[in-house]
User: What shape does this take?
Amino acid sequence: MSNEQSADREVLFQPLQIRAMHLRNRIVMSPMTRGFCPGGVPTDAVATYYRRRAEGGAGLIVTEGVAVDHPAALGDAGLGENNIPTLNDPAAIEGWRKVVEAVHAHGGKIVPQLWHQGVMRKPGTGPNPDVPSVSPSGIWGPLGRMTSIAPGSIPADPEIGAPMSESDIEDAIAAFVRSAINAVEAGFDGIALHGGHGYLIDNFLWEGTNLRDDRWGGSRAKRSEFPAEIVRRIRAAIGEDFPIFFRFSQWKQQDFRATLADTPEELGEVLRPLAQAGVDVFDASVRYYNRAGFEGDPACLAGVARRVTGKLSMAVGGVGINQGMYDRDKAAAVVSDFTPLIDRFAAGEFDLVAVGRAMIGDPQWAHKFRAGEVIEPYRIENDGILS
Ligand SMILES: Cc1cc2nc3c(=O)[nH]c(=O)nc-3n(C[C@H](O)[C@H](O)[C@H](O)COP(=O)(O)O)c2cc1C
Assistant: This one.
């Protein structure tokens, strides 16, 4: 690595203050589900797993998806019964407290990714197998689209239940709020909301799963009302100090080519209600961070999110790794030319950089990136499994 490159990398080691959260640098561990929390409770091994990434220099860790306190939040997600963490009871809160303390002891910050699976919940699985799954319009989404879901897990009929009633919607919002309060009790530094990938929040955002014409649907801004209400209520419950991160994606598991917005203006219609509600950072989930978000506009999706909301944004997807998340069957090799990433960051396109699989592959990723040292590769067989 030349001296220039080494100096350039330093731009990612500027601190950042977001409300009361002080980040030592701009490198974030992206949320990655693992399935190592028996009964929903993080163990000491989970604390060690995250501690190692903080020790390795990550400024912020966004945890794996954590189920909110709602009976239909969770199915097994193919990871065996009841191994996905919750924040719903004293044992889970206590388990997370140990994780948080381990990360803080190494100078890192950590936020839980609050998750409700919505129509993606596999019926008959999870902690409450008998409860029906919930979704805004009772539909799974259009069938026959490009997806990576195993055919056996795609329903034969897109109608999977009844549309959520007002009280169902209130229950789901209240579940997010309770879990956010528990997160603060566990000592977390803020909250992240999973608003992408075809799960409950995204089921409201996407016209493919939200056919409502009441307060909760009918236009882009109205489809944003469910997450906006969650954000407002969380903000009211936890106060002004804690940052709220919001992950969104154009793509859905039901439809890789789906979009919430086809132009930057339309993206503004989706995200501005969330910004106004109190989101601090938009996390734009794409497979390759450096692809243009929209035709005719060179900015990546995180860059456009930043521009149309005036909020901070986080880029993710293919940082330090040559294959996107759904190209995982192909050999994933380390990418060590970070010039395009650094150039975009230095130009102010986004504020934070999330690293997913590469940080599973090498817990020391942030330190090694800074020093220009050789980074260990990610191996698919290690997905979430390793320490
Ligand atoms: C094993 C695995 C589990 C994941 N689990 C989640 C999750 O719980 N929540 C989420 O928002 N994204 C999840 N993702 C997506 C990652 O956060 C990230 O956006 C994606 O892997 C692209 O980043 P990368 O190319 O650096 O790996 C997961 C990805 C992988 C590989």
In short: Residues 361 and 378 are 4 Å apart (CA to CA). The chain has one domain: 3-379.
